[in-house]
Design a protein that fits this description.
22 helices, elongated, about 20% strand, 9-stranded mixed beta sheet, Rossmann fold, binds adenosine-5'-diphosphate, Ribosomal Protein S5, domain 2, about 675 residues, alpha+beta, 6-stranded mixed beta sheet
Length: about 675
């Protein structure tokens, strides 16, 4: 197949391109498409490169799952073009020569209906050969392979998951069966041509004709897309998705044959091109906000929360920030950064200002536009300067306040949450709670707010509880917020450590995120009530008054208990730190606990998994004096056969705790011997 590239010349209303280009052709040539064959790039084997496996899979995903949302290809290409212009504008602050004689940054969409070719082009930063290969031939974002794995093969129905990904440039292949990208990097003389059919791979070679600065993405439309794309449709799509893009977007249409010689209509601007964040709030519709979020975050989901405010006074700036509903696929990638772009008086400065938001808000995206910083602000000032630090403080406060408002307004999932139902705060928490809890650890200043925002599983019921709920349900005489931590809330519900608390009707938080053990090391209390682990030290619930509880169970017969405990200690030796009667058990015979000052069982397991702990530290074995087995054993503490039972009890306690048994062979031998006795 011969590859035809339709090139449009520059319309009169725009400033001329840099002088390395041929002089502008006379206007009558405006729409005379000038064809270039790029077949050479396809046949030259050294120019052709197969796609990486991930690219091929993303392409397959995009083409096969998103066909219903075809229009978004335009939004993706316009977003990229607008980012490219932002980058050039920023670089030109220190190197004004980069703008050359073409300083009006803009985006053009050019439609040639007859040829079935649509071109989206910008005069932004452009790409050289290496950029083209790196950006359009690979998918560098780590975690992509894992994400694709999660998507599964075959039927791609899970659009929500794709929403976490952002497909970008590859969306072009939803409407085109051949895409040619012509690009020249600002400051370079050589233009490059990248071409692909979106199936096998791509080719890159030096462009045969002069390429203006920036990037043209030339789409050779598929038949169904040809029928679908009229100028009116394109205009409506740009209005809908890209009205807020802060650069002019021009639409040019090649006139019907025969009209060519006439003075052609110049491309017209079809978007408003004013920075959305700078407009008065009352003039911005929900739809516009949503589209801006999609553009700024490269995301597809509904924003869960939004903060839009202008600060004036000591510091002047505007912030428009969004919290997503869906967890981005790379939320736990250590390289992931927040998605907030810093502008200075509407000029894009950087999307890498780490000091603008704390790590625990790395799911937030949007724009902060400062009036106080200099356009040529240094990297150093951005990362460590006072202006950024002060903006951060205010922004974090606003975001947390907005989350608190949402938590109040729509706390729970609707009984039958339809596709379009507003996402609840709990849904947000399920996506981002784990990350927000990192803030409990890192951000002492906002800790009280974060504690109010936090939700937990608890023994109160299957749903989420807040600490305020918990505190309101605390029993008379209960002096601490009780919790146990472990791998999953469901498994924790059956833990023997809960037995006494349950008998007294005392609620216990079930903490199942590894991060819980970290913040609990820093956060001592909630409104003066200390957090206390039920798997650590001794737990005294004797002061808790519970009207509904049965009278204290008949005190277990203590006869022989001391002697039994002495026997168990002797039998277990160094394997345990201590053996003692338990006040936390009701139904179970034994459990393991950590010392009051020791580290919690789960934390230790976590550290061991990460190679920070060599071996299990010694535990305290607690026995339940009321349990029939313990009572029976206490009857004959001198029986030598109890030594084997002691080991069985310890192993049983380890199993309940999710620990491995150090000597499974011995365990099995003892177990069989005792079972044989019982038959
Ligand atoms: P994303 O925009 O999410 O990074 P894309 O697949 O859309 O992913 O684009 C990949 C990269 O290609 C961009 O990050 C950018 O570096 C580069 N790119 C895409 N379009 C353009 C363009 N019009 N001008 C300059 N660079 C571009």
């Amino acid at each position: 197949m011969e590859l035809i590239l339709t090139n449009f010349t520059v319309p009169r209303i725009l400033p001329p391109f840099p002088p390395i280009l041929e002089p502008l052709p006379p206007l009558s040539h405006l729409w005379r498409a000038h064809s270039t064959t790029l077949e050479r790039t396809r046949t030259m084997s050294e120019a052709f490169q197969p796609f990486e496996a991930d690219v091929a899979r993303v392409l397959d995903l995009v083409i096969n799952s998103l066909y219903k949302d075809k229009d978004i290809f335009l939004r993706e290409l316009v977003s990229n073009a607008s980012d490219a212009c932002d980058k050039l504008r920023y670089q030109s602050l220190s190197r004004p020569e980069l703008l050359g004689t073409d300083p009006e940054l803009r985006i053009e969409i050019l439609l040639d209906e007859k040829a079935g070719v649509l071109t989206v082009r910008d005069n932004g930063i452009g790409m050289d050969r290496d950029d083209l290969v790196a950006n359009l031939g690979t998918i560098a974002r780590s975690g992509t392979a894992r994400f694709l794995e999660a998507m599964g093969g075959g039927e791609h129905k899970n659009l929500k998951l794709i929403g976490q990904f952002g497909v970008g440039f590859y969306a072009a292949f939803m409407v085109a069966d051949r895409v040619v990208v012509l690009s020249r990097k600002a400051g370079d003389d050589t233009g490059w041509a990248w071409a692909s059919d979106g199936r096998s791979g791509f080719s890159v070679s030096e462009a045969e004709t002069a390429v203006p600065r920036g990037t043209s993405v030339v789409l050779h439309l598929k038949d169904e897309a040809k029928a679908d794309l009229s100028p009116a449709k394109i205009e409506a799509t740009v209005r809908r998705y890209s009205d807020h893009v802060a650069l002019p977007i021009l639409l040019g249409v090649k006139p019907e044959a025969g009209a060519e010689e006439k003075e052609a209509e110049a491309p017209r601007q079809v978007n408003r091109a004013s920075a959305l964040w700078a407009r008065p709030k009352a003039e911005i519709t929900e739809e516009q906000y949503k589209e801006f979020y999609h553009h700024a975050a490269h995301a597809w989901d509904e924003p869960f929360a939004r903060v839009h405010f202008a600060a004036e006074g000591a510091l002047s700036y505007t912030a428009l920030l969004f919290v997503p509903t869906e967890r981005p696929f790379d939320l736990f990638d250590p390289k992931r950064r927040h998605g907030v772009k810093l502008y200075v008086r509407k000029v894009f400065i950087s999307d890498e200002v780490e000091g603008l938001l704390p790590r625990y808000l790395r799911f937030v995206s949007g724009v902060v536009d400062s009036e106080d910083l200099q356009l040529n602000v240094s990297r150093e000032t951005l990362q460590h300067g006072a202006v950024v630090a002060r903006m951060k403080k205010a922004i974090v406060r606003r975001l947390l306040d907005e989350l608190a408002r949402k938590a109040k307004a729509a706390p729970e999932a609707e009984a039958k949450e339809g596709e379009d139902a507003d996402p609840s705060y709990e849904r947000f928490w399920e996506s981002f709670g784990v990350v927000l809890k990192e803030g409990l650890y890192e951000d002492a200043e906002n800790r009280p707010k974060l504690l109010e925002l936090a939700r937990f599983r608890s023994t109160h019921g299957p749903g989420w509880v807040s600490l305020a709920d918990y505190a309101a349900r605390m029993k008379e005489g209960q002096d601490a917020v009780l919790y146990i931590s472990g791998e999953s809330a469901e498994a924790l519900r059956t833990s023997p450590h809960l037995e006494a608390a349950r008998a007294k009707g005392v609620e216990v938080l079930l903490l199942d995120d590894p991060v819980d053990d970290f913040w609990l090391g820093e956060v001592r209390d909630y409104e003066g009530k200390p957090f206390r682990s039920l798997t650590k030290g001794s737990v005294d619930l004797s002061k808790v008054v519970d009207g509904a509880a049965k009278p204290e169970e008949e005190r277990a017969d203590q006869t022989g208990l001391d002697a039994l405990i002495a026997r168990l200690k002797a039998a277990l030796g160094d394997e345990v730190k201590d053996v003692r009667p338990s006040s936390r058990l009701r139904e179970s015979a034994v459990c393991l606990v950590a010392e009051e000052a020791g580290i919690d069982l789960r934390m230790e397991r976590f550290l061991r998994q990460h190679g920070q702990f060599e071996q299990l530290s010694r535990r305290i074995l607690e026995v339940n004096p009321a349990h029939p087995l313990i009572r029976e054993m206490a009857q004959k503490p001198d029986d030598a056969a109890l030594d084997d039972l002691a080991h069985l009890l310890l192993d049983q306690a380890r199993i309940i705790e999710g620990e491995a048994i150090p000597d499974p062979g011995a365990f099995s031998r003892r177990m069989s011997a005792w079972l044989a006795k019982g038959i």
